[in-house]
Design a protein that fits this description.
By secondary structure, the chain is an alpha/beta fold. The chain has 18 helices and twelve strands. The protein has three domains: 190 residues, MutS, DNA mismatch repair protein, Chain A, domain 3; 81 residues, no CATH class; 231 residues, P-loop containing nucleotide triphosphate hydrolases (Rossmann fold). The N and C termini lie far apart (96 Å).
């Protein structure tokens, strides 16, 4: 049968080869996926999210149409869920077959693989049959047409007939009759299989004979058990007998099964390879669809297909943006925010109270950008996105940093590494970087870094507790723009009446007011403390 290209993720073979060769792919590492919470919420088993990031707008749109079908036609997702374990079984059979199991096992694995292949195609055929007229994506149209062509072919019908006949023969084996030649001293001289039977032999015990009302001996009545299966026999003796039986069965089935395998091997291997190739893609789109369903049904959450803008436009404009991992971790309605970059702000310095939502919005931006470049809807009401050449993150480290450089040295080394890997189309996400040193040193180093990123003209957010840094944004802008850089602006995490609102505003920071609100909230303002002192005196 003519080879056809079918993929759930790539519109053409050329685009897939381009991707597999890692040409012009965005730089998004496993660590970045961890820090954005994406590995946790996708939970892939057969591949990594880093396998799927792209900057190709045609690939992104192709995947969006694939996911759109999965979300609008639940039966498609059920069909993919149905074939997933079958493909897992085929893959496991391939693994066992490669581990030098006995030839008899290998022949039986071959039959089982064909059975699984037929089961997989039948599941796909039934799944597509009822929804074919509702399918809109090129991916599922191509897969449906190919499955239809395979299952309606004369070869497939013949394959089913031969498989049924051979399977009946193999699966109906219930016992074998063994003949043993003895020498003059009644010692075994040679042994072999006399026949293969479709029924079990009778035990030969007196009670069984009474129940059968038969006292005659026949070919299916046991006279004496073979000792390796008797009580007290060692595992080695039993294994030796099992091995002998397997060898005998192999000889009996060798010609028919081997002949069968040779006839269909190329056909089945080629088409099971095609299905196994789809396994990672099936898992990816299925897990993505399941995630998107959970998000879209969570209180206050929306998902949208982002409008794509050219990379050179450097756009990110969002309404109702939220962090998907946080949304799935809480039962309450999620707080959403609007966030956009423009000519007046390509890099933001975000300040506000501790645990006021700074890290949450920083991750939300990265997750939306990443999900867009996976070809998926994003966690927002509306979004316009330009692909980026890479996403770099620098989030707080644990306490057990390496000793030779110290924590500050490690932070500076990582920031330098990010700078060396970034370009003008990169997204940089820095969360509480340089928190391992004092405010003066941290603000100085941060202003140097931000000035350089501004001259590079990349986009990003620097989330920080350093209000002095936010206050120095005008000086950073003046310095960077003299060298053709872009502008920075400030964002603040809101606090209302001493309570964190988790809303992010584009405004000038007022670190003093945040500190005052927090002091009031915990009763640590001067006025609060004086009242407590007066109360103690009275």
């Amino acid at each position: 049968m003519e080879n056809k290209y079918v993929s759930l993720l790539y519109p053409t073979l050329e685009s897939e080869i381009f991707h597999r060769n890692r040409v012009n792919l965005p730089s998004v590492t496993e660590e970045v996926c961890d820090e954005l919470g994406l590995n946790e919420i996708f939970a892939l088993n057969t591949s990594s999210l880093t396998d799927y990031f792209t900057t190709d707008e045609s690939v992104i749109r192709y995947r969006q149409s694939t996911v759109r079908d999965l979300l609008s036609i639940p039966e498609l997702l059920d069909t993919l869920s149905g074939i997933h374990p079958i493909l897992d079984d085929i893959r496991e059979l391939r693994r066992l077959d490669s581990e030098n199991i006995t030839s008899a096992d290998s022949y039986l694995y071959s039959i089982t693989e064909i059975e699984l292949y037929v089961s997989c195609l039948d599941t796909l055929r039934r799944g597509f049959a009822g929804v074919k007229d509702r399918i809109g994506s090129p991916a599922f149209k191509a897969l449906s047409d190919f499955v239809c062509e395979l299952t309606e072919s004369d070869y497939y019908r013949e394959l089913n007939e031969k498989l049924e006949a051979l399977s009946d023969r193999v699966h109906e084996v219930k016992s074998i009759t063994i003949g043993v030649n003895l020498d003059r001293e009644l010692r075994p001289e040679s042994a072999g299989v006399i026949s293969i039977n479709s029924e079990h032999f009778k035990s030969g015990k007196l009670l069984d004979k009474i129940l059968r009302l038969s006292f005659k001996n026949d070919a299916f009545t046991c006279i004496a058990n073979l000792s390796p299966f008797g009580k007290g026999q060692s595992d080695n003796k039993q294994e030796a007998l099992i091995g002998a039986f397997n060898s005998a069965i192999e000889d009996v089935f060798r010609s028919s099964v081997k002949g069968w395998r040779n006839i269909v091997a190329d056909y089945v291997m080629e088409n099971t390879d095609f299905l196994l190739k789809l396994l990672p893609e099936i898992e990816f789109v299925s897990k993505a669809a399941e995630l998107l369903v959970r998000l879209s049904t969570h209180p206050g959450c929306s998902i949208c297909y982002p409008e794509l803008a050219p990379m050179a436009d450097k756009k990110f404009e969002s309404v109702g943006l939220y962090n998907p991992r946080v949304a799935l971790a809480i039962d309450d309605e999620i707080v959403t925010n609007d966030l956009s970059f423009d000519d007046e702000a390509r890099i933001y310095v975000l300040t506000g109270p501790n645990r006021g939502g700074k890290s949450v919005i920083t991750v939300a931006l990265g997750a939306a950008q990443a999900m867009c470049q996976l070809g998926l809807p994003v966690p927002a009401e509306r979004c316009v996105v330009s692909p980026v050449s890479g996403i770099f993150t620098h989030f707080p480290e644990g306490a057990d940093d390496t000793i030779d450089k110290g924590r500050l040295g490690e932070e500076c080394a990582r920031l330098k590494e990010i700078f060396d890997g970034a370009d003008e189309n990169t997204l940089i996400l820095l969360d509480e970087s340089l928190s391992s040193t004092g405010a003066y040193e941290a603000s100085y180093i941060a202003s140097e870094i931000l000035s350089a990123f501004a001259v590079m003209r990349c986009r990003g957010i620097f989330s920080t507790h350093l209000h002095e840094l936010a206050a120095s944004v005008p000086e950073i802008n003046e310095r960077s723009m003299r060298q053709g850089g872009i502008k920075l602006d400030t964002l603040v995490a809101g606090i209302e009446e001493g309570q964190r609102s988790f809303k992010i505003y584009r405004a000038k920071p007022d670190g003093k007011s945040y500190a005052r609100d927090i002091a009031d909230k915990y009763g640590l303002s001067f006025e609060n403390l004086m009242e407590r002192m007066d109360a103690r005196r009275s």
